[in-house]
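Q&A log
Question type: sequence-to-structure
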Amino acid sequence: MPDLLVCGREEKVQPWLSLESVFLGAFVLLGGAIILMSIRLGFGTAEEPGSGFFPFFVGLFVFLTAGSLTVRSGWGKKPKAVPLNLFEDSGKCFWGMVVTFLAWIFLARWLGYLIVTFLASLAFSKILGEKGWIRSLALAAGITTLIYLLFDLWFYLDLPRGFLD
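Response status: OK
Response body:
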């Protein structure tokens, strides 16, 4: 059977049950509902997005992601349930993610949102098992740039600037 990479470890996969499809189907419906409600709110223009603009794309993302996962789950395999011991090797990935999220939340005020986003993205890629530094740095830079362009320049949100203020 093929292997699946989970937090840097290879895990064996085996056939799955259909309960996952029901759960994903609920997310397909949720995404569709968000899309319909955002259309009723209106999109606005590219210069001045309306209140339904951002929720439409969130709903579309949820709808497409859950839909593709639902279709894939019917043909694919589900990873074998691996017990998570939070105080041994298998818990390192979990605790690494928790610590990174908490650091992101608490340090954004002092270091600034973009710097902390870059560092958190870099930490996430290493925790999840990305080999090498060039791809991790490129990923972190890409995520940070996308967030800056989307939220600061396009949506005019005032992200915390930290010591750069």
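Response note: The first strand starts at residue 3 and ends at 6.
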